[in-house]
Amino acid sequence: MAEKNLDFDAVIDRRNTNCLKYDFAAARGMPEDILPLWVADMDFRVSSYIQEALHSQAEHGIYGYSEAKGDYFAALSAWMEERHGWKVYEKWLVKTPGVVFALAMAIKAFTKEGDGVMIQQPVYYPFSEVIKDNDRKVVNNSLVQNKNGKYEMNLADLEEKIVKEKVKLLFLCNPHNPVGRVWTKEELERLGEICRKYDVIVVSDEIHEDFVYEGKHQVFADIKKEYLDFTITCTSPSKTFNIAGLQVSNIFIANSQLKRKFKKQIDASGYSQINAAGLIACQAAYEKGGEWYEAMLAYIKENLAYIREFLETRLPEVKMIMPEGTYLAWLDFRALKLADSELDDFMIHKAGLWLDGGSIFGDEGKGFQRINAACPKETLKRALTRLEKAVKEKRQ
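Predicted structure:
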């Protein structure tokens, strides 16, 4: 059967479906009529092959304890090798209900209370939250912007803080959310050599690996065989195929000792089998979702280009950090000269938009907002038109 869900222009009403993005505005203190482009899921129907696999499961009528068999790993490993040139082995695999859950397990497995865990802000805010919630210390190696506005790693600061704070665990965001960097092999190798020198375990969050528009996604653990020994690689079909609610992630740990410690923490948490629907959706996605994925990626690339052109021609006060990867755009509002709380208020009450305020990603995000481009172009046009109207009114 052919793929049926390739109409990404279709505006699908997600209200009254218990949708976090659309149904919880009032509960989170937002106006009911706000247009939400914050949380990172898509407003597109999933691949019809995923729908069909889930329909088949639903019709069976029994939803008991389930586990993946060989076909699951075959689909997963084929995707990794064909799309990213990385050969993985089943003995490396640990399945979790999400990447953030895996981050928490890594913290518990490889650090103790009070230890420092390094992150690179501005970065996906659950990184810092899960560190603090587990009574560890956030050690921040801030990203820096060069004269062209492109974000880069400050590796001298990274090495200095690893030594000073006795860091033994680093969270790498690759590709990077929210700034959209697709780290090059050379950048990652320089980081890797520092981590190898000081015995730092790297948890590489590669959930956005399938969204790359410039360059090529480099699996951190695959740069050198030695890196496999100190890396936990976190992947998931949740972003790529819009199935975050089905809660399935695939974590690869080649070092058997690290894997054993990681698994022990999962066992201690009381967690065992993955969501049965998640297993089925993941396998169907990697086996048959390629056509949908390619079409979706092309559509989002057009959306990102549309945002950039709109801002350059109609809203020059707002600068876009053009993402090399992810489906999230990092927008610079500093020219509006608003304090961070004022900017949030402006977006919500003047523009009628619910975006992610930059400061939640760290102090380095002040003056920025993150917008989700994985939506029908009509939704994006509505959002940018609202923003344009609000900025014009502010000019007067």
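Summary: The domain at 64-288 is CATH 3.40.640.10 (Aspartate Aminotransferase; domain 2).
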